[in-house]
Design brief:
This protein has about 240 residues and is of the alpha/beta class. Helices cover about 40% and strands about 15% of the residues. Bound molecules: zinc ion. It is an enzyme of class 4 (lyase).
Length: about 240
């Protein structure tokens, strides 16, 4: 990979990692994530790259193959649900996977400095942040403290859901995931340029808490994400 996030490392250090080949293509990175999720769903995780040897091998630099912009929900631990380890995923999480300036900057860092080829927006069913925003909109009351900022960030998705006639919570979550994908690309010309050049893709995925399976709900470029998820036969094959 041409972008070697090697800050603090020693030039010329021989990497002895046994990790999978460096994934610089969006489609390969996506396939790796889907494969890991299938292992997790099937109860047969490999727990790759979590041993002391790998810890030492990646200490001189990182080459994560995917950025995960996920909800902070404690049941949505990225390395667990995608069966990955140290150095694999660059994870940015906020309640309701909101996309403010620090999130955008973190994504841009991973994509441009580390050369990460895939950005995943990861939401989930029964999301508390989306439910809180819906309750706030329904009652006309704003939550106290900084929680209001989370609700405000989700409200545009609620308005979009209302305009589209979607009122079930999981349908709203799907719209919010797609909205977050659009926000990332709309607010970050840097990311949009990387996608336009074919060096990166952005996929929105929804995770089901009970089943543990992800399914794609949005993708840029269109048609990028394909996923045949046995655990969720209703999932779209392509987005
Ligand atoms: Zn959530």
């Amino acid at each position: 990979m041409s972008h070697a996030g090697n800050a603090g490392g020693q030039p010329g250090t021989q990497r002895t990692t046994d990790r999978a080949p460096v994934l610089s293509e969006p489609s390969r990175a996506y396939a790796e994530l889907v494969a890991g999720n299938r292992r997790f769903v099937g109860g047969a995780p490999h727990h790759p790259n979590q041993d002391a040897g790998h810890r030492a091998a990646v200490a001189d630099g990182q080459h994560p193959f995917a950025v995960i912009v996920g909800c902070s929900d404690s049941r949505l631990a990225a390395e667990i649900i995608f069966d990955r380890g140290l150095g694999d995923l660059f994870v940015v999480r906020t309640a309701g996977h909101t996309a403010g300036p620090e999130v955008l900057g973190s994504v841009e860092y991973a994509v441009t400095v580390l050369g990460t080829p895939l950005v995943v927006v990861l939401g989930h069913d029964l999301c508390g942040a989306v439910q809180a925003a819906r309750e706030s909109a329904a009652t006309g009351t704003a939550p106290s403290g900084h929680l209001g900022a989370v609700v405000d960030a989700v409200l545009p998705s609620l308005r979009r859901a209302e305009a589209e006639g979607v009122d079930d919570i999981d349908g709203i979550v799907d719209i919010h995931i797609a909205q977050t994908v659009e926000t990332l690309l709309g607010q970050s010309p840097v990311l949009a340029d990387e996608v336009a050049r074919g060096r990166c893709a952005v996929v929105g995925m929804s995770y089901r808490l009970a089943a543990g399976a992800v399914r794609p709900v949005a993708a840029v470029p269109a048609g990028f994400a394909t996923l045949d998820t046995p655990a969720d036969p209703a999932a779209p094959a392509t987005v």
